[in-house]
Structures are given as structure tokens and as C-alpha cells.
Specification:
alpha+beta, eight-stranded antiparallel beta sheet, 7 helices, 12% helix
Length: 336
């Protein structure tokens, strides 16, 4: 999401049959992947909750021009809070919202919020518990990590979609020589479909390498109707793996702050070191939570994702953004 996102890809695996896997044996790869995380112990490093997200020493509010050309005014911390777009509820839930009260003319920009951690990470286990996420025509919500030198230090999109999409897209953006190995499809959840194989991205070509999580609870209205859930991303030199757990399926070891990824079953996405040198492509990442309004992917997919009229006209009506808000329980980071 750092620059223009690619179109939502959900190519059937058969269409990717021409991709050639790397040289070493498939059995060796499988054994290495199964061995990962069987003995690791994770130690809690950071726990962001409640007022943490409004603490300027921990999270910064992005208030510059949108790099993806959306119809959005990103708000400073003081403006977001004074306008009721960033606040903590009495129960400790943090809300980050798009303005849903101001009537605009078509083409005007709507106020929204984008925040990022002041701390950067070079790996770890990241667990994010959301009660709700933004959805609706003209919205582009995302939760991702990104390095300062894009795309060479990489981007990991944990949550991303647009408009009325019902499935989450999990994506890597990188410099050259990084890909998904198509033979890894047997090592991901049966809900997931491999999309584009090539992770290498640029300002003019940045689809990235993707998985689509076909669990309708993983994104948008379906996610909110279940009371949200947890996304987990395990990033180390061997692989980047991501899981989704709907509210009723969250493993007890996560809620008890003693996560054990080896017990969670197959991930929704698996990006292996066998086809991408993880250590050289991903570094110094900050975490970002964002709701964009219109912009590249949102507008290009506007009609195909169930929306009528134009994105600009949709932005003018504040009632279209009644569901455009994050409700965050916590984000935790662990190191092994």
C-alpha cells in the first residue's frame, strides 16, 4: 500500500504452472518448513493498547499528501483528536475513523487518519487484534509494515482491500529477485489462493506477490459481523508467515500472551526464503494503520467491487463512511 497497490489478483494455481521452482528438493523444503517454530519461545516486546496509539512517542500521525493520490486529508494527531477521528472508548478500544459528518462537493478531500510506529523492526512475531475494520465504497483500509527505502527494504501487507471486497489480500512488495514459490501452495490454508508470484515492485509496476484469503470473515463487513479477530505475522530469516483467526477461533496461547505459531496450523500466507532472501529484502519496518479514500486501487476496482457511480461522488456523501473506522483492541510484538 506504500505506493499504488496492484489490482486484486486471484489467479487459479493452474494458470501459474509455467513458474519454475528453485533448485533444491521439495522434500527438503517441506522438512525445513515443518521444523520452523517447533521449539521457539516468544518474549513480549511491545504491547500497544488504548492511549498507546495516541502517544506521539510511540505512534506518529501522517499528515502529508497521500502518495496513492486519494481524495483524503490525513489529519495531524491534534486535529484527528479534536475532530473525533482518533479516540479511546471507555472500554479501552482505540478508534481511528474517517469523517462521516461533513457533506462535500464531488472531488473534495475527506478527512481520515493514518498512523505509524516510531519504532522499527527487523523481524519478530506481530499480533494485531481488531474488533472492526473500515469497509464500504471509496474506502481502502490497510495494516502493513514497511522499510524506509521502498521497495528495496520491503513492505508486508497484512490487511488490505478496497470498497466492498469480502476477502483479505496479503502481499509482499520488494526489490528484485523475490517471489512466491508456487509449490508452497500445499503449505497454506485451504482458504488461501496464490495470486501474483513476483514480489518485485516499483512505482510503475507494484502488484507485488499475493495470497487471497477466501475466508469471508477475514475482511470487511464479514469480519465486523463476527466481532473482528486476530491477524498474526511471523517474520524471520526463514520465512514470512501470516495467519487470520476469527473472534471465536483465536488460539488460547495468543490470548494468554504465550504465542506458539507451530500449533496454529497452516498459515493464510507463506513467503519462503527458498524463493526470496528475506533478510536482504526486508528490514527496518515500521507498522502502519491507514484508511485511504479513493486512490489508485480503490478507483480502478470501484465498479468491479460492487460500487455504483463514481468514487469522487461517493466521497461527497458522509453517510457512505459510517462504517469506515478501525476499532483496535491491541497490537503486540514478540521476539524469539
Amino acid at each position: 500500500m506504500h505506493f499504488l497497490s496492484g489490482f486484486l489478483l486471484s489467479l487459479p494455481l493452474a494458470s501459474l504452472a509455467g513458474h519454475k521452482s528453485r533448485s533444491f528438493g521439495q522434500n527438503h523444503r517441506r522438512a525445513a518448513l515443518k521444523a520452523r517454530n517447533t521449539t521457539s519461545t516468544y518474549v513480549l516486546e511491545d504491547y500497544y493498547q488504548g492511549q498507546s496509539f495516541l502517544n506521539s512517542s510511540l505512534w506518529t500521525f501522517f499528515d502529508d499528501t497521500d502518495p496513492t493520490a486519494g481524495l483524503v486529508n490525513y489529519q495531524s494527531s491534534s486535529d484527528a483528536q479534536s475532530k473525533g477521528l482518533a479516540y479511546v472508548q471507555d472500554d479501552g478500544t482505540t478508534v481511528l475513523a474517517v469523517d462521516n459528518t461533513t457533506t462535500l462537493t464531488s472531488g473534495q478531500y475527506r478527512d481520515s487518519v493514518r498512523i505509524a510506529t516510531t519504532k522499527s523492526y527487523n523481524g519478530g512475531l506481530f499480533i494485531a487484534d481488531f474488533y472492526a475494520m473500515p469497509y464500504g465504497c471509496a474506502t481502502w483500509p490497510a495494516f502493513w509494515s514497511v522499510g524506509p527505502n521502498w521497495p528495496d527494504q520491503g513492505e508486508i501487507d497484512i490487511i488490505e482491500g478496497v470498497n466492498l471486497n469480502t476477502h483479505n489480500q496479503l502481499t509482499l512488495h520488494s526489490g528484485a529477485d523475490c517471489a512466491i514459490e508456487s509449490t508452497l501452495s500445499s503449505h497454506v490454508s485451504g482458504n488461501s489462493t496464490i495470486g501474483n508470484l513476483q514480489c518485485a515492485s516499483s512505482a510503475s509496476s507494484n502488484t507485488g506477490c499475493t495470497y487471497i484469503d477466501n475466508d469471508a470473515r477475514s475482511y470487511g463487513q464479514g469480519f465486523n459481523q463476527q466481532g473482528g479477530g486476530v491477524y498474526a505475522m511471523d517474520w524471520n530469516a526463514d520465512a514470512i508467515k501470516m495467519w487470520f483467526f476469527s473472534r471465536d477461533d483465536i488460539p488460547s496461547d495468543i490470548t494468554e500472551k504465550s504465542p506458539n505459531p507451530s500449533s496454529w496450523g497452516e498459515p493464510a500466507a507463506l513467503f519462503s526464503n527458498s524463493a526470496c532472501d528475506i533478510g536482504s529484502h526486508f528490514s527496518e519496518h515500521t507498522l502502519t494503520i491507514n484508511t485511504d479514500v479513493c486512490g489508485g486501487w480503490t478507483e480502478s476496482a470501484f465498479s468491479s467491487s460492487g460500487c455504483s457511480g463514481t468514487c469522487a461522488d461517493t466521497v461527497a456523501d458522509p453517510s457512505n463512511f459510517d462504517n469506515a473506522r478501525w476499532k483496535i483492541n491491541y497490537i503486540a510484538t514478540y521476539q524469539s
